[in-house]
Amino acid sequence: MPCFFHLYRKQMGLVHALMIFMTASSGLFRDNIFPPIRFMRFGLRKKGTTLSKSKKMGVVQLTTVTAINMMGSGIILLPATLAEIGTASIFAWILASIGATILAYAFARCGMHTSKVGGMGGYAEYRFGRAGNFLSNFCYTISLIIANAAIASGVVSYGSYVFGLTLSPVEVCMATIGVLILAATISLVGPKKFGKFTSLGVFCVVSPVVGLLLCGFFFFDTGIYSEAWNPGNLPFYDIMKDSIAVIIWAFLGLETACANSDTVENPEKNVPIAVLAGTLLAGACYTTSTAIIGGLVPYKELMASGAPFGLAYATMFGEKAGYIISCMLVCSCFVSLTAWQFTVSEVAREASSIGLFPKFLSKVNRFRSPYVAIGSLVAIQVIMTLSTMSPTLLKQFNVLINLAVMINLIPYLLAMGAVSDLQKAEGIPHDKAKLANAAAIVGGIYSCYAVYGCGWTVILEGAFVAAMGLVIYALISSRLRYAPTPEVSTYPPIDKK
């Protein structure tokens, strides 16, 4: 029997209504690592109508969807990144999973009750006003731009492993820029065309992780794992601090955890349960797969690897298996990057449509793709890639993800600070609001610790981005055409004549 996958609400008030059918025999979950673009059909169920009960998901289905939604291309280079710290970073994985679950729960409650558009910016506006909305969306857009550059470096990293290339820093930089431009160019044709490849991309990233969970224990070597426990003899506190920001990279996107609330039976009860269970399940998969790789590949080899999953499969099943898995991950990352390039530009277009960003960013081509926003954001990505050029691919990847995480935590902190005000403004009874308020406090503390874990250099860079956002807002606030509306906006925009 077919079932509906999800009705997804994305940042900037953009509701991407995508009803994706999956058969019980297919075994493929569509649109998990990919941004929630409506790849199949454009349109929205009319406001005020509901899905029939037989077509709604139960709590088990929603838990599975939430867990799959969390899993994505963020994991593919993390085993190599964490190898320098050691397998003791498993404790940071546990802490990050718990923290991500608490944050996801708070965001789920916000998403269910807010009447404002703008995603996290809309949440922040309840406490910090229009300036908070602008700053949140500005930082979120910048973090996604940087995150896409990191995904592109992952494509280059696994691609160099597949083709046996040893690239110089300049060649790495040029290849990353080429991948970014190619993905952006493809995204100009709109999501309806490139979205046909989403199932393939999802299969190519989920299969290696699941395969490792099923088969990895048979090849696991406790000697290799214990040798890699703490190669740098770091104090426990430093292990946690140095790992936490890197690991949070794998959980970025948790702010959309409530996206399926309209397609669920008894959402008031089932959505929070599914968000808690699904995020913990995704964290468990991440933690276990990373630990297994730590027991398959000696940490010195892992530290130098640009394709840790390929290396792990090569250890288990031979070189051919390693190349096949690496090819699959190159495919998944590139399809994901193409979709994310469109999504970031669509975030900017939607911000422009409500008057928070310059009007020219709202222009679209005949495919309804925001070509001006895409071009502008790619130009920023090129500058960012050139400015973060590093001796190795892995170092460049680490620089990019630390900066992306730091800047993304700013909207998290603003949103957590506004949870109490949001619930008061929306008339949520105190007894029902207590748990979400407590989650917001804990989530805020967790986010502050994650900011600290990014390191002072990255913190200063993130603070500079935030300050730049505030300066820009001060300069243009009097000219903004800000006109928020609680009505659902759709993509593509429809001209009313």
Structural features, described:
With 497 residues, the protein is mostly helical. Helices cover 64% and strands 2% of the residues. It has helices spanning 59-70, 78-83, 90-113, 120-162, 169-187, 191-194, 198-215, 222-227, 236-248, 267-294, 299-303, 308-317, 319-353, 371-387, 393-425, 430-453, 456-476; strands at residues 3-4, 8-9, 15-16, 21-22. The strands form two sheets. A two-stranded antiparallel ribbon has the order 1-4. The chain has a two-stranded antiparallel sheet with strand order 2-3. Strand 2 (8-9) and strand 3 form a beta hairpin. Helix 3 runs antiparallel to helix 10.
Sheet-strand content, in percent, reads: under 5%
- Mean pLDDT across residues: 79
Instruction: Let me know the number of strands.
Output: 4
Radius of gyration: 21 Å
Low-confidence stretches: 1-51, 486-497
Structural class: mainly alpha
Instruction: Give the strand order, joined by hyphens, for the main sheet.
Output: 1-4
Element-by-element helix/strand order: EEEEHHHHHHHHHHHHHHHHH
The span between the termini is 42 Å
User: Tally the helices: what do you get?
Assistant: 17
* Helical residue percent band: 55-70%
| Overall form | globular
Biggest β-sheet description = 2 strands, antiparallel
